[in-house]
């Protein structure tokens, strides 16, 4: 199957591309390279450098390749930045992708997997969070993800383009063979930031928020290894190809890890006791996000294999240790 992967040069997208190739599919990547890395994509995979808001670029992709489905990762993802610049996030994550949907419709491509987020829920009223939990995002980032989910429902009703939106919060870890991993600039995700501190690339680690209503006062999150995420996306794609209707699912372990526990896991794996300072909470951060993925697990037979915190941190450490400067490492 020819599959367009938007944001396919990014962290999760490039891992998805590698899995698609390994499973016999033919991915085509559309990425602006604003945050993605060309070298993260296998050299045999076509890369079109461009933005999904550019109709001519998107149209050219569908005209050149017999695209049958889309996996949509392209989008901004920094919660704190979204609070500072909400309109930027609404344009990039909600409005610009409409161009992609319109071109899909014009080319009779009726299948799209959307990379959504548990940030749509905001501060939870129950843990773990089910899909029908009230939506009350605490950041424009979370709101943009929810808005695009709803837009996909409307688009399905209007055009027949079917979608599966997958909600997860903390994608993490690296390829188990250490060949690809997280390389953001700036880096805001807790595991690579903690590892950077352990490697001496920054002198201290800031722990944001220490008096939340969690078991140790720090934020509680549901961490999902990128290998498990890619597998779930592939399962969802195959379901759409078999006629599955539009739907939304959580992807999670249902077993959260606190920020303090993450730091402890990084210290244990690296053997380095780096300096940690306590800081105030970040704007837009819910205190707890642990999702119930029973619905997806029962329907698709999916079980996370690599999403315990020890395996996640070990894979990330393997990547960062062998690539101290990310994809620019020699």
Structural description of this entry:
The chain is α/β, with parallel strands linked by helices. It has two domains: 2-172 and 223-250, 3-Layer(aba) Sandwich (Rossmann fold); 190-220 and 254-328, Alpha-Beta Complex (UDP-galactose 4-epimerase, domain 1), CATH 3.90.25.10. It has eleven helices and 14 strands. The protein has helices spanning 11-22, 55-64, 79-84, 86-95, 97-106, 140-159, 190-198, 226-241, 259-270, 294-300, 309-322, and strands at 2-6, 26-31, 47-49, 69-72, 111-117, 162-168, 170-172, 205-208, 220-221, 223-225, 247-250, 257-258, 276-279, 288-289. The protein has a seven-stranded parallel beta sheet, sandwiched between helices. Strands 12-9-14 form a three-stranded mixed beta sheet. Strands 7-10 form a two-stranded parallel ribbon. Strand 1 (2-6), helix 1 (11-22) and strand 2 (26-31) form a beta-alpha-beta unit. Helix 7 runs parallel beside helix 9, helix 7 packs across helix 11 and helix 9 (259-270) crosses helix 11. The model has no long low-confidence stretch (mean pLDDT 95).
């Amino acid at each position: 199957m020819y599959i367009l992967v938007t944001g396919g040069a990014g962290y999760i997208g490039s891992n998805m591309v590698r899995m698609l190739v390994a499973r016999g599919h033919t991915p085509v990547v559309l990425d602006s390279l604003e945050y993605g890395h060309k070298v993260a994509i296998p050299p045999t995979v076509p890369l079109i450098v461009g933005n999904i808001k550019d109709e001519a670029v998107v149209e050219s992709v569908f005209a050149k390749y017999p695209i049958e489905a889309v996996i949509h990762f392209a989008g901004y993802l920094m919660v704190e930045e979204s609070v500072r610049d909400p309109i930027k996030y609404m344009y990039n994550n909600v409005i610009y992708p409409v161009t992609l949907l319109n071109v899909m419709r014009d080319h009779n491509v009726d299948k799209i997997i959307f990379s959504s987020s548990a940030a749509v829920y905001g501060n939870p009223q129950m843990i773990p969070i089910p899909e029908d939990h009230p939506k009350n995002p605490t950041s424009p980032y979370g709101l943009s993800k929810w808005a695009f989910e709803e837009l996909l429902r409307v688009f399905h009703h209007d055009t027949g383009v079917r979608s599966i939106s997958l909600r997860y919060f903390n994608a993490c870890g690296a390829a188990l063979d250490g060949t690809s991993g997280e390389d953001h600039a700036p880096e805001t995700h807790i595991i690579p930031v903690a590892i950077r501190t352990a490697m001496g690339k920054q002198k201290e680690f800031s722990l944001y928020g220490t008096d939340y209503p969690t078991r140790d006062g720090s934020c509680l999150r549901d961490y999902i290894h990128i290998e498990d995420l890619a597998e779930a996306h592939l399962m969802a794609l195959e379901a759409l190809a078999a006629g599955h209707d539009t739907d939304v699912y959580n992807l999670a372990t249902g077993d959260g890890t606190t920020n303090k526990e993450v730091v402890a896991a990084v210290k244990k794996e690296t053997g380095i006791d780096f300096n940690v300072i306590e800081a105030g909470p970040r704007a837009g951060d819910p205190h707890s996000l642990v999702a119930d993925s029973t619905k997806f697990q029962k329907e698709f037979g999916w079980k996370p294999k690599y999403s315990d915190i020890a395996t996640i941190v070990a894979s990330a450490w393997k990547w960062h240790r062998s690539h101290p400067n990310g994809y620019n490492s020699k």
